[in-house]
Each structure stands twice: as structure tokens, then as C-alpha cells.
């Protein structure tokens, strides 16, 4: 048990370090006084539009989750589910992946619904979201093929080839040592944690399968499957417009097309999904920054846009987390 906790702490610290490292790489050449001047030229009416769309997404997610919980035989109140979701996104922002657990515990506390049944509905939501993201990525690849290929060449293939392979072939002794060291470290860690993985994996798989079973049961019992589909579409349309409306804050970024937004949402969601604290801080900035560059936005505006989108979502997550906590404790005190 102690070993497991040490590993979790080590994982948390490592991911936090990666996040700070990526953020440092993103911001190190940024002149913050110039950034402040650029931000001062923006039309922040669109900030309020983005916040309104963000609230709508929370509402649709609440209604969709309520449908799944009702399908397994439990009635819930909208404000309790809304509060649980708001708190969960705030928790996930600080400790990735813990939000799913927190929202199940919150609803269990308010409605006395078995934790595993709630977890099953959360898992099926995640499965639906992963499928939705895959569809979004496929659409992006089809509709923005040239830009995606260029993105991969600039950010994946070229750095590996020029930064590692060519240097090793040219006889760079230290690069060769670094590559071998990394490979040996990876092999060592794999063997070192093999016992831990073998012990934990079956239990985690069984829990996942049990949760998935409960989730599939809830989907099968849905009386309004079409409405569930509509909510899912509205959620992802909301994600799209939460990014698209940011384009109009600056004249220089308003020229970005719907295709650019599709690419930013798809690749940016991958950045947010990386289990790094702060909503994928650093990873999100870097990926969105590189996508914006592909569409011709230069100067400070390409970094400003990535920074504002992430900062806006961070503000919203914290604000809604506070709202969720207020709702939760008000309901709890009324019960007392």
C-alpha cells in the first residue's frame, strides 16, 4: 500500500514537472509587456460569449448524465448533478483523473446511489467522448489533410530526424549516449514496475469491465436515445464554438477559418487529455501554438491566442468549481 502511494506521488510530481517544463519552453521567449499590449487591443465581448457557451456545455453534460443515471433506476436533482460536474472538472484540473471519482462520491452523498453504478455511467460517458473525439480527428484529417501532415512533419518527424537520428549518424557521441540511456531507463522501469503492473492490472480491468457493463446497461435502458445523441452533438458543438469565438477577440486572428478551429479543437483536446495538472498546461499551449502557426497567424498573436484560450478555460473551471462547491454545501446544510 505504501509503495503504491509512493508511486502515485512520484507520478504526480513527474507530471507536474513535465507541465512546468513545457510551459517554460512555451513562455521563455515571450515578452510579457508586449503580450500585455496585445491583449489590451482585444475585443473581450467575445470572452463573455465563450463563457455563455461554456455554461451551456455544462448544462448539456448535466442533462446527459442525468439520463444515464435515470436509466439505471435512480432519480436525481439537476442542481446536484450540475454541482458534481462542476466540482469534478475543478478537481481534475488540479489532480488529473480524480474528477470522475469526486463527482460519483458527490452524487452518492446527495442521493445515496451505489458508487459503482455511478462509475459505470461515467465510464460510458468517457467511451462516448473518446468515440466523439476520434470522429472529430477523422473529420480534421479528411478536411484539413495538408495542414495535419505539415503539423506532423514539423512537430514529430523533423525533430526526431534532425534532432536525434542525423546527430547520431554524424557521430555525435553524447546524443548516442543519451538515446541509449533513455532506452535502458525505459527497459529498467518496465521490469521494475512489472510486478506492480501485474498486481494492479487485473483489479483495474475488472473494475473497468464492471463499470462498462453498468454503463452499457444504462445506455440500453435509455428511453430517449435520440435525445442522448443530440446532447452529445451539442456538447461537441459547444467545444467547437468555445474555441471559434476566441478568434474574433483580435482582428489578426479573426481571419482563421472554420477548418483552423476544427484542427485546434481536435489537437487541443489531445493536449488537454494529457494527464498533466492545470488542464494539460504546456502541452495544450504548445500544440495549439503550432496549429495556429500553420494557418498564417504570426507575431505575438499565435502565442496570445493559445494563452487566452487556456486562461479563459482555467478561469471558467475555477469559477464553476466554486459555484459547484457552494451548491453542494448549501444542499448539505439544508439536509442537516
In short:
Helix content is 83%, strand content 0%.
Mean pLDDT: 78
Total domains, how many? 1
| Number of strand segments | 0
N/C terminus separation: 35 Å
Uncertain stretches: none
- Give the overall silhouette: globular
Number of helices: 14
- Over the alpha carbons, how many angstroms does the gyration radius reach? 22 Å
Order of helices and strands: HHHHHHHHHHHHHH
Structural class: mainly alpha
Helix content: over 70%
Strand content: under 5%
Walk me through what this model shows.
Helices cover 83% and strands 0% of the residues. The relative contact order is 0.16. It has helices at residues 2-27, 32-40, 45-71, 78-94, 99-111, 115-143, 145-169, 173-192, 194-220, 225-244, 258-273, 277-280, 283-294, 301-335. It is mainly alpha-helical and 336 residues long.
Salient structural properties:
336 residues; single chain; mainly alpha; 14 helices
Amino acid at each position: 500500500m505504501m509503495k503504491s502511494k509512493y508511486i502515485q506521488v512520484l507520478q504526480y510530481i513527474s507530471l507536474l514537472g513535465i507541465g512546468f517544463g513545457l510551459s517554460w519552453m512555451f513562455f521563455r521567449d515571450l515578452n510579457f509587456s508586449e503580450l500585455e499590449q496585445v491583449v489590451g487591443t482585444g475585443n473581450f465581448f467575445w470572452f463573455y460569449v465563450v463563457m455563455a457557451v461554456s455554461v451551456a456545455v455544462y448544462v448539456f453534460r448535466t442533462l446527459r448524465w442525468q439520463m444515464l443515471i435515470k436509466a439505471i433506476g435512480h432519480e436525481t436533482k439537476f442542481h446536484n448533478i450540475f454541482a458534481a460536474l462542476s466540482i469534478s472538472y475543478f478537481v481534475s484540473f488540479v489532480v488529473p483523473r480524480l474528477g470522475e471519482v469526486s463527482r460519483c462520491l458527490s452524487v452518492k452523498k446527495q442521493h445515496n446511489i451505489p458508487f459503482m453504478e455511478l462509475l459505470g455511467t461515467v465510464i460510458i460517458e468517457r467511451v462516448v467522448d473518446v468515440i466523439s473525439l476520434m470522429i472529430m480527428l477523422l473529420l480534421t484529417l479528411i478536411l484539413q489533410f495538408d495542414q495535419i501532415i505539415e503539423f506532423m512533419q514539423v512537430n514529430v518527424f523533423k525533430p526526431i530526424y534532425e534532432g536525434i537520428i542525423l546527430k547520431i549518424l554524424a557521430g555525435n557521441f553524447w546524443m548516442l549516449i543519451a538515446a541509449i540511456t533513455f532506452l535502458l531507463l525505459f527497459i529498467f522501469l518496465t521490469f521494475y514496475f512489472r510486478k506492480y503492473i501485474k498486481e494492479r492490472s487485473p483489479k483495474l480491468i475488472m473494475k473497468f469491465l464492471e463499470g462498462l457493463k453498468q454503463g452499457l446497461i444504462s445506455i440500453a435502458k435509455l428511453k430517449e436515445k435520440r435525445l442522448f445523441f443530440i446532447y452529445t452533438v451539442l456538447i461537441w458543438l459547444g467545444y467547437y464554438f468555445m474555441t471559434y469565438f476566441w478568434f474574433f477577440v483580435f482582428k489578426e486572428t479573426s481571419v482563421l477559418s472554420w477548418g483552423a478551429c476544427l484542427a485546434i479543437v481536435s489537437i487541443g483536446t489531445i493536449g488537454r487529455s494529457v494527464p498533466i495538472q492545470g488542464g494539460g498546461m504546456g502541452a495544450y499551449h504548445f500544440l495549439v501554438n503550432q496549429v495556429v502557426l500553420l494557418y498564417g497567424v504570426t507575431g505575438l498573436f499565435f502565442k496570445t491566442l493559445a494563452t487566452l484560450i487556456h486562461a479563459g478555460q482555467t478561469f471558467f473551471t475555477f469559477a464553476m468549481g466554486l459555484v459547484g462547491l457552494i451548491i453542494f454545501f448549501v444542499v448539505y446544510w439544508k439536509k442537516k
